[in-house]
Protein 1
Amino acid sequence: MSMNTKMWDDRAKQCIAQGSLTNSKRPETDVLGVFPTHFESGYGPYLYTDKRDRYLDFVSGLGAINLGYANEQLENEVAKSAKGGCLSGNTIQEVITAEKIKSTFHWVDRVKFVNDGTEACMAAIRMARAYNGKDIVLWEGYHGWYDEATAVNDNARGTPCGHKIVNLNAINLDSDLNNVSAIILEPVMLDDSRERIEYLKRLRTRSEEKNIVLIFDEVVTGMRYPSLSVSKHWGIYPDLLCLGKACANGYKIGAVAGCADIMDGDYFVSGTYFGHLPTLKATEACMHLTKHDNKYDAKDLNEKALDFKERFNGLSPYTVKLEGWGARMNWVGTDLNLALFRQTLIENRIFTKNTFFLNHATKHHLDELFSVCQFAIKHINSGSAVMKGPMPRKPVAQIARERQ
């Protein structure tokens, strides 16, 4: 660990609770002493430390960066069109941005903006319970840090007991589901096989039969998956769609979009910063660029990712391999091999976690990544790679998804 990195880590531990604001960014999730713990800025495909050390980044702000850091086209739109933060009344910008989401996801009637993906999932569940008057929620995947989401994880300390949530995978869909209010899931985590898509269609049918609100959490897949969402690509339309991350390219945003009957209901979801002007303008600009500028075509992004996956998995799949649908994949292997692999990559100025996100800036650097990966795999297989720090700790979100 460079002296400046250690200095920032030491300072963080004296002023920031738990030493880090985000569980997946805690230094313990990387190889301590090898990975930089703090960055100063990002530009294009790169992260920079305060000493201007440069790293090619395949974490993409945990999936929030889709167009590349500090994308000039988007930032110019934000700078000239969205002055200030919030106004005292409703804004024209929130209408324009909501209309942009409706035009992108054609089955959507209404939109509610929130601050991030966690709030979107939380709001969607509240809307569902208000709509059908039932309490039980069937659950699959990772949906944020609020009480009910945390209660299903190992680290549930501080959350009240008695949440009415049930593991979706423990339920027979042909059973009596009369008490179920909602089904919330990430429609695709890594698996988008034909079997998975047929399962999603089955969920759609049973939800309609039993008056259950079907919620697709596409915080990760939204704007990244081909056709810009799993639901749109496969024609499986949920009652409520949760969006976030890549919709605003690093500006904090969350949104629930869906049926008017549910979203115009009698529930309370409200926040001063739901109408944050720079964020809403960034969302409008990001969605426009992703839909209309060929440089940011989601199909092209995913094809490049899948081509890289095939090349990489031809190296030594029993050492480390890639699994996933394209722009979001996971490095898979033993804990030791993964740690050695990531350690070698960071020593060669490539930053990745166990999750791999490709974006429209990094997609031009896949040959560089492949060359370093070849070296890393050879290094591991020869036995010359050794750990230079403690084994990384898995983030909560990864553990939650691995249980499915």
Protein 2
Amino acid sequence: MKRSGGDNELTRSHVASTQDVIAYYEGKTRAILERYGPGPRVHYHTGIVDDPAPPGSSISDLRRGLVAAQERLLHYAAERWSASSALCGEVLDVGCGLGGGAIFWAQEFGARVTAVTCVAAHIEWVARFAAQAGVAARVRPLLCDALEVPGENRFDGVVAVDSSGYLPRRPWLRRIAALLRPAGRAFVIDCFLERPEYEEPFNRYWHTRIGTVAEYLAAAQDAGLDLEGVEDITHRTEHFWTTTIALIEAELCAKRLHASEAARREASLAAHRLVRRGLAEQALRYALISFRKNGGSRARKVAA
């Protein structure tokens, strides 16, 4: 996630360096595996939860519910994006984490996925999980800055799930436009900013820089990407965060933690409460956005 000083988006508060982001995710690997594992499809992104978990749910039940919610989100997005035709060829998964999404597209739709991460320690995990899932030949982990993925006109689809916030939108979407084949499609799922007071604490905890939907649309237009649609799914993601809060609270009660670990989990609890409150107050927004490279059919549609 290379930053360029010429992009005025970079004036946002708490813009983390690439090394900060790498260190953050290296430090999160064990916790991700504990919470969302054992795999082989391990995700680190939001999910769809329509109803909160019953009070008193066990830690294991809450974890299973979160994993199911993450899978539910990908299945929902696949349906909305017509993945059987749009994500069945050469696909770039941006910010692939431990490879859960890349393996999903390969297993469910037969895609040949280039799974890009800037975290060297995650390359082995992606390869290992792809082998366990039987799609090692279809998932290629690539250690690379997302702005420097090599090639031109080589992908049919690009997917970024809860990862685009780490990237300067204009340079990244220009690179995506170059990487896509004519009429290729780009898909984003992320949390977007609606009220500015949420920006600083959100960015500080997740080492990211949240943007607005309007910012993405303007950057995509400049890059030569036509908007296909924006679908608001805030109402279906709020209780994912209700569930993560319940899980963190249950873990705090169930475990005897060292002071440093307890402090880390308390900070995590505060951050998750912030997101849930922001979604409930419409200060934050989760949405699916899809674009098509110029040259394809134009179908501009915005769903509130």
